[in-house]
Structure formats: structure tokens, C-alpha cells
Design goal:
about 325 residues, 2 domains, 12 helices, elongated, about 5% strand
Length: about 325
């Protein structure tokens, strides 16, 4: 694709061209995957709408107050704080591109902090974000096949990082789709795999692990040397694919676990069932996820119901 070749002092009126060149910069300059490029360009798109609505014509007129106003506007539109933080991160990358091309002289995004998440609600990813994460590993390499199995199993079972790292081959029964997990306090529980996780794990066991594991090695997930993959390595793997999928920078195995629980409740699962699957000793621990589901329901209601935002004078 031919570069747009914008000139210094870029105008907001050239927004569409700027986003196209930003995408080319990410794809060819930083060698990012197509899905990651799409996520970055999608994330910066609302900034152009905001500037147009505010009548801002030059990027030289944009200071930290304008950017703070943009973040507040996103929150008013119903974006959760995690999404707003991600859009700010993408905007920083956009400004880095602009400065590198000489299109702006200053970048004030570093002077703006992302909105702090209120309360103790854990971060989650929506179903689309999880799907992008699961599809991020390449299925043409041994490493990608292994990593896809890790991600599928983590989301299918809502596993903690330590539970993934200590999982042995004999803990997963591909016929019954049951996984025996040793959780906190050495407590054992059984959780369930869906069909995609079964397929991913079987492919890994048959085509990758069988070639690198010794007969005495019980660990499910192995490194290139044929020994158990460490928790630290697993966390790096998750963060690597989260970046490729365009998810938040603080995305972790814990985020997958929280997303697992929230998606189950959103789908109608009983709180007690989710408690058992997560290995929580008390339903109060699981109760936090009902707050997240309620927040999701409120956002869906406000965006979908025809009279949800209608002003009425009583």
C-alpha cells in the first residue's frame, strides 16, 4: 500500500488519512499482526469523532485538558474504565507515530493519567476480546500449538496461574472432559473442559508434547527443554498474546479467570456452580462477579432500551 505522506502540522480534517498511515506504520514499521493493527486503529477512531464534535481543527490546539475531556467523554458514552485506559494507551502510540513523522511537535498524552478503576471489581475481557486472545497463537508452530492449549484450558476451566503450572497430563481426562485441579490450600476440585479446549489440548499432546517429553515427565505444559513450564513463563505467554490481541497491558491469567466467571454468570449459570468451578470456599468470594454482571447488564440496558436515556420531567 502506498504511504499517505502527510506533511508537518497535520490537520484534524485529515483524520482518515492519518489513521490509514498510522495503520501502515504499525504494520510495516513495527511489524505488528493485522489483528493488533486493527485494534489500535479502532481504538483511536473515537478521538477523531471527539475532536470533530468539539470543533478542534489543529493538533497543535490539543493539550492535556482536551485529552482529559476526551477520556471523560468516553466514560459518558458508557465505556468501562479498562477500555478507556486501553484507548489512551493506543492514543499514546498514535502520538508516537505522529512525532516520529514530524506531524506534531509535542505530545501531552504522557501528562494524562488513565482513569483509576473504582472499588475492587477485577478486570475482565468481553467475549470478543477472549476470542481474539485464543486465536492469537499461530497454529503452524509447536510453540503456538502449546500456547493455544494453555489459553483454551485457562479460559475453559477458569484456572489460576499456579493451577496451570502444576497441571499434570493425568489430571485431564479428554474423554469425560474433566480436569482435576489442585487449588489453594492443596484443595482438589474438578472442573470441565469445553470441546475447543479438548481439541486444543489433544492436538498439543499428540503433535508437540509427545516429541519433547521424557517418559518420567508428568507435567502437562513443557518448555523447549522438555521440563515443566514455570508460572512466570506462562504469565509472559498470556501477556504476549494479549498484546497481539489488542487487550489491556495489564492483562493476565487472572483476567482470564475473572472473565470465565463473569461470562458464566452472564450466560445464566448459578452462583453456586461458579463457586465450585472456581474453587472458592465461600459464596461471598464469588459474589463479586455478580456485581460485574449487573454492571454489564446496566450498560447493555442503557445502550439498547429505547426509553432508557429519555429525559422526562415529572
Amino acid at each position: 500500500m502506498t504511504p499517505v505522506n502527510l506533511v508537518a502540522g497535520a490537520s484534524v480534517h485529515e483524520w482518515d488519512e492519518l489513521v490509514i498511515e498510522f495503520g501502515e506504520y504499525l504494520a510495516y514499521g513495527r511489524q505488528l499482526a493485522p489483528l493488533t493493527v486493527r485494534n489500535y486503529t479502532t481504538d483511536v477512531a473515537p478521538f477523531g469523532d471527539f475532536l470533530a464534535k468539539r470543533g478542534v481543527e489543529s493538533f497543535e490546539d490539543i493539550d492535556r485538558l482536551v485529552i482529559r475531556g476526551y477520556l471523560a467523554w468516553l466514560l459518558e458514552l458508557g465505556y468501562v474504565k479498562a477500555s478507556v485506559s486501553r484507548k489512551l494507551s493506543s492514543l499514546r502510540s498514535f502520538y508516537a507515530f505522529m512525532k516520529e513523522r514530524g506531524l506534531v511537535e509535542r505530545d501531552e498524552t504522557d501528562l494524562v493519567s488513565a482513569p483509576k478503576s473504582g472499588g475492587k471489581l477485577p478486570p475482565i475481557a468481553n467475549e470478543g476480546g477472549i476470542q481474539a486472545l485464543l486465536e492469537a497463537p499461530s497454529m503452524t508452530t509447536d510453540t503456538g500449538i502449546r500456547d493455544r492449549a494453555i489459553l483454551e484450558l485457562a479460559y475453559a476451566c477458569g484456572l489460576r496461574l499456579s493451577e496451570i503450572a502444576t497441571l499434570d497430563v493425568n489430571d485431564a481426562d479428554l474423554e469425560t472432559r474433566l480436569v482435576s485441579v489442585t487449588g489453594k490450600g492443596s484443595k482438589n476440585r474438578h472442573t470441565i473442559m469445553g470441546a475447543p479446549a479438548v481439541v486444543a489440548v489433544k492436538r498439543y499432546l499428540d503433535s508437540v508434547r509427545s516429541r519433547v517429553a521424557s517418559l518420567s515427565q508428568p507435567a502437562m505444559f513443557l518448555n523447549r527443554g522438555g521440563t515443566r513450564l514455570s508460572g512466570r513463563s506462562i504469565q509472559k505467554i498470556v501477556k504476549k498474546y494479549a498484546l497481539i490481541a489488542g487487550l489491556d497491558l495489564d492483562f493476565s491469567t487472572h483476567t482470564i479467570r475473572h472473565s470465565f466467571a463473569t461470562h458464566l454468570l452472564d450466560g445464566g449459570a448459578d452462583l453456586r456452580v461458579v463457586q465450585e468451578l472456581l474453587g472458592h470456599s465461600s459464596p461471598q468470594t464469588t459474589q463479586i462477579y455478580t456485581h460485574i454482571s449487573t454492571a454489564s447488564a446496566r450498560k447493555a440496558y442503557l445502550s439498547a432500551h429505547p426509553r432508557a436515556r429519555k429525559r422526562v420531567d415529572l
